[in-house]
Amino acid sequence: MKHKDHKRVKKAKKDKKRSKTHRDDSKKSKKRDKEAKHKTESGPISSDPEQQINGDNKQQTEPVISDFDVLSIYADISKLSAVERYLNMLYRPFTCFVKTNCEFKLSELDCFLSDTRYEPDKHSALLIRLSSPICSLRLYDNGNICCQGYSYDSAALGIHRFIGTMEHLGYSPVFQNPKFNVVNATFCMPFSIHLEQLYREYHEDCLYNPETRPYLTYQIRNSSIKLAIFHVGYVYVLLSSQPRFTQKAIAFIMPILFRHRAANRPNVAELSSGDINFKLLWENEFQNAYQGTLKYSR
């Protein structure tokens, strides 16, 4: 009797084990079918890491920028950032720099003034933010002050109001000949420019002497803004007073640059923009040449 019971128990265990194995096989089969279906829908997964990276990059690729997008650069806001990257567009803040005859105690001013930050281990200047006008200042202990604003006027007014605050705190700052940045934006066209043809068509608005300068200067009518255009397609926007005037000048010059694009010249943006030394060299040149054009006004 015991022997028969033992056989029944043993048989029940075998049946239970066989049923469990069948369920596991069924789950594995469903999993394989699901993976196969996913591969069929999404395509084969490459074992090459480089191909996988390229696949990820394709999903994050920038939208294709056409000539029309560049010509109408500020018309479609959804494409503006992509167009600006395509042109290597860099905007400069409006900056006013002055030297005073004072020596400031930055740690004390950090306590007296609001909305400041002073971290001498990281930066030698006291950083100050003003709300009226909206601007930021860097104050150095040797008396130098640098103010960056959203326009020429806000940078100048920020300096003026901060000087007034210093006078209330017992300082007597005196400064002469404030300096403003004259380069407001730079960008690089994806092609070279035929400067001679451009000059012939717009000679009344241009200055061009290739024997003395490798660029053409285009004066925007009824405006203080000038554009320095190099034959490689690199352009400096100079002497603007507000961001909207800078953008207006860029939008104005685009069709002119396209009409005078040069043939048989390299159109690689990296080559056209030049290296950092090239950019800084001419930026300093323009700063020295046009510094006297900008006058400080309270």
From TrEMBL:
Keyword DNA-binding in record: yes
UniProt entry tagged with the keyword ATP-binding: no
Pfam families reported in the protein's UniProt record: TBP
GO MF annotations, alphabetized: DNA binding
Alphabetical keyword list: DNA-binding, Transcription
Region Disordered, annotated ranges: 1-59
Superkingdom of the organism of origin: Eukaryota
Compositionally biased intervals (Basic and acidic residues): 22-41
Biological process, per Gene Ontology: DNA-templated transcription initiation
Polar residues bias locations: 43-59
UniProt feature, compositional bias: Basic residues: 1-21
Family: Belongs to the TBP family.
Protein name: Uncharacterized protein, isoform A
